[in-house]
Specification:
This protein is of the alpha/beta class and about 325 residues long. It is built from eleven helices and 13 strands. The protein folds into two domains: about 200 residues, NADH:ubiquinone oxidoreductase-like, 20kDa subunit (Rossmann fold), CATH 3.40.50.700; about 120 residues, Cytochrome-c3 Hydrogenase, Chain A, domain 2 (Irregular). The chain is about 25% helix and about 10% strand.
């Protein structure tokens, strides 16, 4: 028996389109291989589809009026509610209606609603500052429930909005979420308290970081070009950020920390306004304010003191260099 296709509609609003660009870089498997393998029928995507104008508006009308089924609604970019809650700062071309209205109508029809990226999930970059557009996420406004669809929203499958956060989001997170939805393999227990799929949100960026040996001995970099741990001085939040970027590298090899930049915790609500420079670690009494997740302050201070005292000279030297200056000693590990 031929299995029914899982229909997918993708809309974009206030954002840069970076999550789509990221998703298109998916490999092993690639984007279209995933769609084919899991029976996902892409009804329309503003970048990937040829259809436009009357074809698209007709498709949207068919979904809203029940003539066509919609399994997954993916929304990229924040939702614009201004001015004065009308949503008219973003009118969907050719429809005479705000995107705000369309997302509410389509979400009421879809079996699942998925926020692609932190803008769609929590408001993200486009909601920063004074936010004159009144931009928000689908079901969150920053870290507060609500957003465009409201705190009580549940999809026709009984789930809240699934927040595949990230700025941009990892292609693997998007595709794995879509695979799970196509197989009815994602339930309420598979989401964390901010609606993020736990398959990536139960990890920390710190896991697998190439700088972990420097972290263990608190051998810290003081400038971005240096090899040491970036937590103590350069604002790295990898020990607090929920994502598996360093155990699931981007395109097989990359991550922010491996590229020499601190983790800015882009999967979290309100990451865009940390109240400081992204490359600055706020401290109180010389101790970083943002301590590693689950680490009591007294333990951190004690362990940091011991670690610094025990730092091998190799790590102390290399932490402040832009390349390995002193290699590890060759040690005879043969038992005699």
């Amino acid at each position: 028996m031929t299995r029914r296709k899982t229909t997918l509609l993708w809309l974009q609003s206030a954002g840069c389109g970076g999550c789509t660009m990221s998703m298109m870089c998916a490999e092993a498997p690639g984007l279209f291989d995933t769609f084919n393998n899991f029976g996902i029928d892409l009804l329309w995507h503003p970048t990937l589809s040829e259809a436009s104008a009357d074809e698209v508006t007709g498709l949207l009308a068919d979904i809203v009026e029940g003539r066509r089924s919609l399994d997954i609604l993916c929304f990229e970019g924040s939702v614009v509610r201004g001015p004065n809650g009308s949503g008219r700062y973003h009118m969907l071309a050719g429809t005479g209606r705000p995107m705000l209205d369309w997302v509410r109508l389509l979400a009421s029809r879809a079996r699942h609603t998925v926020a692609i990226g932190t803008c769609a999930a929590y408001g993200g970059i486009t909601s920063a500052g004074s936010n004159p557009a009144d931009a928000c996420g689908l079901q969150y406004d920053g870290d507060l429930e609500g957003g465009a669809l409201g705190a009580s929203f549940r999809s026709n499958a009984g789930l809240p909005v699934i927040n595949v956060a990230g700025c941009p989001t990892h292609p693997g997170w998007v595709l794995e979420t879509l695979m799970m939805l196509a197989e009815d393999g994602l339930g309420p227990a598979d989401l964390d308290r901010f609606g993020r799929p736990r398959f990536f949100a139960d990890h920390l960026v710190h896991h697998g970081c190439s700088r972990n040996e420097f972290y263990e001995f608190k051998a810290s970099a003081e400038q971005l070009s240096e090899l040491g741990c970036m937590m103590e001085h350069l604002g790295c939040l990898g020990t607090q950020a929920h994502a598996d970027c360093n155990t699931r590298p981007w395109n097989g090899s990359g991550s922010c920390t491996s590229g020499g930049y601190p983790c800015i915790n882009c999967t979290a609500p309100e990451f865009e306004e940390p109240g400081r420079s992204f490359t600055e670690t706020p401290k109180f009494g010389g101790v970083p304010i943002g301590l590693p997740t689950d680490m009591p302050k007294a333990w951190f201070i004690a362990l940091a003191s011991l670690s610094k005292a025990a730092t091998p000279n190799r790590l102390r030297v290399n932490a402040r260099a832009d390349r390995i200056v002193q290699p590890p000693a060759v040690k005879d590990t043969t038992r005699r």
